[in-house]
Specification:
It is built from eight helices and ten strands. By secondary structure, it is of the alpha/beta class.
Length: 281
C-alpha cells in the first residue's frame, strides 16, 4: 500500500511539478469556509472534505456530529485501493486531520497505524482516526471476502469460517473453565455475538453461561454466519472503547460512541437478513 501525508503547500508543489497522476487518489481536508487545493487537470481522483480541525478532548465535542463525510471517504479509500492507487492524505499542515486519516487506513489494513500517534512529526486527529477507521469497517460489509483480501497483506487476510470456528472454540474453552473452576469472572472477552442462518442475532454478556451452553447445544458452526467477541470499557468522555474480533474484519480496535456501533450493526443485520434477536446482557 502506497500512502502519503502532505500539507497544503506540499500538495500545491506536487501539482506544479506534475507529480500527480491518474494513479493517485487525494483526500483533501480544508477548513470550513475555506477552499480546497485545486488539482484539476492533474489526472488524480480527489475527495474534498470541508472539516475544521476539532478533536475529542475539546469541551462539548460531539463525535457523532463531527465528520459526516467519513463514510463517503471510506468508500473512496476502498475504491481507490481496489484500483491500486496511491492514497494521498492532505490537510493544512499535514500533521493532524491528514495524519488521523492515514493512521486509520494503516491501522485497519496493516495494524500499525498507531505508530503515527507516537511520532514527533505528526499529531493525528483522534476523531478523524476513529470516524475513518469505523467507516472502513462498515464499507467492508459491502465487499466480498475475496475483494477485501486483495487489499490486506498476507498475514492479515481473512477467512470467515476459520474465524467463526476460532470464536466458537474460545467460547467452549471459557465455558469448560467455568465448569472446572466454578468461576465465571475469568473471561478474556466480555461479550459474544452470533448471527445464525435462521435469521437470529444472539448477544450474550459473558456471565450468561447457561444461555451460552444452550446456544452451543442448539447450533453447529455450520449454522453460524457471523461471530464476534470483544471487550468493552468506558472513557471519561463516555465513549465506548471496544477491542473486537469478528468474522467480517478480524481483530479490530474501535473507539467511538454508540452511534458508530449502531451504524455498523444496522448494516450487519441487513447483510445477514436478521429478523429476530436474543439478547442477554
Amino acid at each position: 500500500m502506497d500512502l502519503l501525508i502532505v500539507s497544503r503547500d506540499e500538495l500545491v508543489k506536487m501539482r506544479e511539478h506534475k507529480r500527480l497522476s491518474n494513479k493517485d487518489a487525494v483526500i483533501c481536508f480544508y477548513d470550513e469556509g475555506g477552499k480546497p487545493v485545486d488539482i484539476s487537470g492533474s489526472g488524480a481522483s480527489v475527495l474534498t472534505v470541508e472539516l475544521d480541525d476539532k478533536d475529542i478532548d475539546e469541551k462539548d465535542f460531539r463525535i457523532h456530529q463531527y465528520f459526516p463525510q467519513s463514510y463517503r471517504a471510506a468508500r473512496f479509500i476502498m475504491q481507490s485501493l481496489m484500483k491500486n492507487k496511491r492514497i494521498i492524505c492532505q490537510c493544512e499542515y499535514g500533521q493532524s486531520r491528514s495524519a488521523g486519516c492515514a493512521a486509520a487506513i494503516m491501522e485497519y489494513f496493516s495494524g500499525n497505524g498507531l505508530v503515527l500517534f507516537a511520532s514527533e512529526k505528526f499529531f493525528p486527529n483522534k476523531a478523524v482516526f476513529s470516524k475513518i477507521y469505523n467507516a472502513l469497517r462498515r464499507v467492508r460489509l459491502e465487499m466480498s471476502q475475496e475483494e477485501i483480501n486483495l487489499l490486506f497483506p498476507a498475514g492479515r487476510k481473512l477467512n470467515r469460517q476459520e474465524i467463526i470456528s476460532d470464536i466458537t472454540n474460545k467460547l467452549r474453552a471459557y465455558l469448560a473453565n467455568v465448569k472446572k473452576d466454578d468461576n465465571d469472572d475469568d473471561c478474556e472477552y466480555s461479550f459474544f455475538e452470533f448471527i445464525t442462518s435462521d435469521g437470529t442475532e444472539h448477544y450474550y454478556m459473558w456471565l450468561f453461561t447457561e444461555e451460552l451452553e444452550e446456544f452451543l447445544s442448539k447450533y453447529s458452526e455450520e449454522d453460524i454466519v457471523y461471530a464476534m467477541c470483544g471487550r468493552s470499557a468506558y472513557s471519561s468522555y463516555c465513549y465506548i472503547a471496544n477491542f473486537i474480533y469478528d468474522s467480517e474484519n478480524g481483530m479490530c480496535y474501535k473507539y467511538c460512541n454508540y452511534y458508530e456501533s449502531f451504524e455498523y450493526d444496522k448494516k450487519l443485520r441487513k447483510k445477514y437478513k436478521v429478523v429476530r434477536k436474543e439478547i442477554y446482557d
